[in-house]
Design goal:
By secondary structure, the protein is mostly helical. The longest helix is centred in the middle third of the chain and has 36 residues. The chain contains 5 helices and no strands. The radius of gyration is 23 Å and the shape is flat.
Length: about 120
């Protein structure tokens, strides 16, 4: 994507990260008018959406990694050398999350299967 100015990308990143246009203008060092003009373009809105998607994907990746570590921790707490109350709480935590996680995975698989079939033809009644 060809940027319109040297502040286009920094402004888009700042807005995508949660700043208002006014705050982003101050942060990147441009006039408020220039920031508002730029933010009104379809190209700018598209770039902000792309950056937000990238940030969200990165956050989900980090959460997934943390989930693996959390499960490993719970499994360690299940070991016989831990107090029965600790083992019980770890067991409860695991069991409380198995259902929702497996259901989510199953729904994702179903959605993927439907999407792989191509566009759905809708018939008017």
């Amino acid at each position: 994507m060809k940027s319109k100015s040297r502040i286009f990308e920094p402004l888009a990143i700042t807005v995508a990260s949660g700043s208002s246009i006014k705050a982003a203008a101050v942060i990147v060092g441009c006039s408020l008018q220039a920031a508002y003009n730029m933010s009104g373009s379809a190209e700018f809105r598209q770039r902000v959406a792309e950056i937000r998607t990238e940030l969200t994907t990165e956050a989900v990746g980090k959460l997934t990694e943390a989930c693996v570590e959390a499960v490993d921790t719970l499994r360690e707490l299940l070991k016989p050398e831990n107090e029965p109350s600790v083992r019980l709480n770890a067991s409860k935590a695991i069991l409380a999350n198995v259902g929702p996680l497996s259901e989510s995975g199953e729904l994702r698989a179903r959605i993927d299967a439907i999407e792989s079939q191509g566009p759905v033809l809708r018939v008017a009644r």
